[in-house]
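W.,

You were right to be curious about this one. When I first looked at the sequence I had no strong expectations either way, so I just let the prediction run and decided to look at it fresh. Below is the sequence, 302 residues in total, followed by the output.
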Amino acid sequence: MTLRYAYYPGCVAQGACRELYQSTAALTQALGIELIELKKASCCGSGTFKEDSQLLEDTVNARNIALAEELQLPLLTHCSTCQGVIGHVDERLKACQKDDPAYMEQVNGLLQKEGCSPYKGSTEVKHLLWALVGDYGLEALAKKVTRQLSGLKCAAFYGCYLLRAQDQLPYDDPYNPQSMENVFRTVGATPVMYRGRTQCCGWPLSSYATEQSFRMAGGHIQEAIAAGADCMVTPCPLCHLNLDSRQPEVESVIGQKLGLPVLHLPQLVALALGISPEALGLQKHIVSTRPVLEKLERLAAV
């Protein structure tokens, strides 16, 4: 049976991290997963809407979820921040359906006023990582691997939104996650463990405490390098921006050269399926991914 999802790509993957959008399409096509993009969806707010109004965040994202409900499909995102925000709203509103029906009437009343479908609470919000682990399955994924990434040492950077924004995390332990490491092993790579893999990348601070943000990112990258990582792999494009796109600025702040490639999760998995680096946008990163590709070429030649 073909897996089908209502696809919520989010804003960053359609702008600053276009390679995430590109690699997600390549990966899901190779796995036979059908994505129906929600073209009318809006920005989730990345946690900022609730600073002004919880009702605003809930209503905007109730609409996003309702678009998936119209298709009778789970909402799939490849952005940890979107997962955290929309997933948390979904949890809140499902609870409100039981405990605060008046609030639900207020949210749906605002949606109705704008000609939108009401939120029903009939679907779920799911990150690409959870879809790979929980729906597709690692055993099935292993059968699709045509290029074992043996010898490549990967440091997962989960970030915070994916793990702890929701009360329920059915696919992993929010404080000692293993799902990304299990994916690494499935494609033949070696997981590298380090302290900062479940901490904040510093992105939320970057607009008003830039130096502190960059020092946070730099500390995580230094730890991963010290642990022997060839690359970092993240399921969040906002983390990718702070760890890859701003790595030169991070280096200036901490006074140390880093040069650690940072891959998006679908890029790593798709490499193991034999998809070309160009098709995955690996040439678009700020920190060159060439060392990763060269190591894989050397290992394959042995």
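Here's what jumped out at me. The longest strand covers residues 4-7. And, maybe more interesting for your project: The two ends are 38 Å apart (CA to CA).

Coffee later to discuss?

I.
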